From TrEMBL:
Subcellular location(s) of the protein: Cytoplasm
Annotated Aminoacyl-tRNA synthetase class I anticodon-binding domain residues: 373-499
Designated name of the protein: Glutamate--tRNA ligase
Annotated motif 'KMSKS' region, positions: 262-266
Length: 505
């Protein structure tokens, strides 16, 4: 039997989770669920300088809101825990030591001033300074490859600052594979000797990431394209430890709506869309908008994110989370960057709006609008049922439905010109009679009475229906006139028609 699929989402808690990060989490989730595997959340907080209070909670809330909760992670099902790297500090040193003992890593004592000087010297000659095979043993750099064992020991014991660097192999061609990108090969001579461990007792991202993926029995690493340049080092580390490497899949970048460059928060600010799942208040008080608060449904976010890089190979665009789990396949993820389309996102929201329960939408509408405070939520739900096909967001509702709740206070000028003609007042007076005489006040009865009267008297439909609509709505907009009359009731209908007649006098 093959190994149980285990994937992880490994964000650094440095601020709110960008939708690119949510997409990474989603693809991990889909892959795990598709293969009956586990979706792990690991918090990569080794860089204390970049740590932001509240960021971890934000990440967890975002995943939960999207409906893609982790199976294992901080505070949940901790069989491979702890899941915060800051709580695993004690684990990493032994692995760095193991590589040193095997001659695959070394101590380096170069100070940042010395390294700066090397960098500047190289720059002056138009070269880039790389710490690796070509200079590490030449004597200008201070490391345990050139010092004697005693010298190295003495420095460490004297409390000198050091780092542990990986000894990248010289003159090797490394074969790499990525599920999305296929086979690649890399000349190890271009790699630098990355720092694995610092004398402050903290591992770097690379070491901690590999050690944890190994200890947590991760089978597939699915992450953003920005980590592709680290793949060679990661593969070399697995080899150096003698561990079986997981499979890798690097997801394509999410591009700006123009298709040029990576999608940033600034693009969202400029073009009026969020780049974060939930609203976020930074420690300095700045607020960034979120999809949830902007009125997007979680289903929308999941659906549009799935299409940023993946496609089902058919024309189908609407996918529930369940369908995505069923159809998702890393083989159908593109290499090329995925352009973010804010209009398409709205299109998805319009679709998912139609799937919501009217009563749920109504309670949200009610809580967001003070004018609805005293109105029965069941009435609001009926209104919602009549107007939601024109709405993308709950925030569109008032504009589409105010006339179900309050009488028009004025009449649209253009609409009035179009609807009010010679004789309109007589027609409207007759409609008032018809409305008054409709005892059983149903949509069907109103419709029959008024339409029959129009037909019998050979009056153009527009001549009646346009002013009637104007009277009820204040404009030539809105759902079916008979639905509106039925909803607002006989007395209010009569009142509104009479109010319009009054203005024509
Ligand atoms: N901590 C890294 C990040 O913030 C994780 C990269 C990876 O998945 O290996 O994205």
């Amino acid at each position: 039997m093959s190994k149980k699929v285990r994937v992880r989402f490994a964000p650094s808690p440095t601020g709110p989770l960008h939708i690119g990060g949510v997409r990474t989490a989603l693809f991990n989730y889909l892959f795990a669920k598709k293969h009956g595997g586990d979706f792990v959340l690991r918090i990569e907080d080794t860089d204390q300088n970049r740590y932001v209070e509240g960021a971890e909670d934000y990440i967890v809330e975002s995943l939960n809101w999207c409906g893609i909760p982790f199976d294992e992670g901080p505070g949940k099902n901790e069989k491979f825990g702890p899941y915060r790297q800051s709580e695993r500090k004690h684990l990493y040193k032994q692995y760095a030591d193991q590589l040193i003992d095997a001659g695959k890593a070394y101590y380096a004592f170069d100070t940042s001033e010395q390294l700066d000087a090397h960098r500047k010297g190289h720059e002056a000659e138009g070269k880039t300074f790389i710490y690796n095979w070509h200079n590490r043993e030449k004597g200008r750099l201070v490391n345990s490859l050139v010092l004697t064992e005693e010298e190295t020991k003495a420095k460490i014991e004297a409390g000198e600052d050091y780092v542990i660097r990986f000894k990248s192999p010289q003159d090797e061609t490394l074969a790499l594979n990525d599920i999305i990108r296929g086979d690649m090969s890399i000349d190890t001579n271009v790699l630098d000797d990355k720092i694995l461990f610092k004398s402050d007792g903290m591992p770097t991202y690379h070491l901690a990431n590999i050690v944890d993926d190994h200890l947590m029995e991760i089978t597939h690493v699915i992450r953003g394209e920005e980590w592709l340049p680290s793949l060679a080092l990661h593969k070399l580390l697995y080899d150096a430890f003698g561990w079986e490497a997981p499979e890798f899949a690097h997801l394509p970048l999410i591009l700006k709506p123009t298709g040029k460059g990576k999608l940033s928060k600034r693009d969202g600010d400029k073009m009026g869309f969020p780049v974060f799942p939930l609203e976020y208040t930074a420690p300095d008080g700045t607020v960034s908008r979120g999809y949830k608060e902007d009125g997007y449904f979680a289903d929308t976010v999941v659906n549009f994110l799935a299409f940023l890089g993946w496609n089902p190979g058919s024309e189908q665009e609407i996918f529930s989370l369940e369908q995505l789990v069923n159809d998702f396949d890393l083989a159908r993820v593109n290499k090329a960057g995925a352009r973010f389309d804010p209009d398409k996102t709205k299109w998805f929201n319009h679709h998912y709006m139609q799937q919501q329960l009217d009563l749920d939408l109504a309670s949200e509408f009610k809580t967001k609008n003070i004018l609805l405070k005293d109105i029965d939520v069941n009435y609001i739900a009926l209104v919602v049922g009549l107007i939601k096909e024109r709405a993308t967001f709950v925030s569109d509702f008032w504009e589409l439905s105010h006339f179900f709740f309050v009488s028009p206070t004025d009449y649209d000028e253009k609409a009035s010109k179009k609807a009010l003609k010679e004789g309109t007042d007589e027609i409207l007076n007759k409609v008032v009679d018809l409305v008054n005489s409709t005892d059983d006040f149903t949509v069907e009865n109103l419709q029959t009475n008024i339409k029959d009267w129009i037909t019998d008297n050979e009056i153009g439909f527009g001549k009646v229906m346009m002013p009637l609509r104007l009277a009820l709505v204040g404009a030539l907009q809105g759902p079916d006139v008979f639905d509106i009359m039925y909803m607002i009731g006989k007395a209010e209908t009569v009142k509104r028609i009479e109010a319009l007649v009054e203005t024509t006098k």
